[in-house]
Each structure stands twice: as structure tokens, then as C-alpha cells.
Amino acid sequence: MRTLAFLYAILMAAPVLAESFDRPIPQAQSATAELWFAIGSLAMIAALAFVQWLVARR
Known about the structure:
By secondary structure, the protein is mainly alpha-helical. Helices cover about 65% and strands about 0% of the residues.
């Protein structure tokens, strides 16, 4: 029985049964994504400028 279990474990772990890795293909950004990124970037710059102004007042 141990031999049968050992043989079963070896056969189930055989690399022949493994599937090959398919590399993901990167997708291009849409115009909507670029617009939201630009809005987010401008908001971040505005927030940093506001914090700089707030700190300089003290």
C-alpha cells in the first residue's frame, strides 16, 4: 500500500502534467485613463502647493 501511495504521489507531481506559463500581454491605456491620471496629477500638485503655503505661513 505504501508503494502504491508513493507511486501515485510521484505520478501526480510529474512536471509533464504542468501547464506552461503564458505571459500576460500589457494593454494600452485608454484616453479616459490618461484624463483621470492628468486630473489626479494636477490635484496632487495643487495639494502639495497648498501644504507648502500653509507651512510657510507658520
